[in-house]
Write a structure and sequence with these properties.
Blueprint (H helix, E strand, L loop, with lengths): L1 H50 L7 H13 L4 H22 L2
Helix pairs in contact: 1-2, 1-3, 2-3
């Protein structure tokens, strides 16, 4: 009798556990992709503003989104883009604020 109960619990518990794990992984992927899209959009907005002579205003937001991206398993491609953006932003600041 006990053996049957254990088998029933395992049979019922495994799909539930698999669903929980799958749900957490899916949430991580969704958060990572949302942060990635936000990063690229914010960088694009800043570069567009700079073309029109406006001060870029999304630096801290890019870094915040990058933290979310990285926390959710982000890869080196976006890291490279964020590092390029940071260099661009610092150079832009020096050209326009130091004057």
């Amino acid at each position: 009798m006990t053996e049957g109960i254990i088998i029933a619990l395992i049979t019922a518990g495994f799909p539930i556990l698999a669903t929980i794990i799958s749900s957490k992984n899916t949430k991580k992927i969704i958060n990572r992709n949302a942060a990635k899209q936000s990063i690229f959009s914010l960088i694009n907005d800043d570069k567009t503003d700079a073309l029109y002579g406006k001060m870029p205003s999304n630096y801290q937001n890019v870094l915040n989104e990058y933290d979310i991206y990285h926390k959710n398993g982000g890869n080196s491609y976006v890291t490279e883009k964020v590092e390029d953006y940071k260099k661009w932003y610092v150079a832009w600041e020096h050209q326009h604020i130091d004057k």
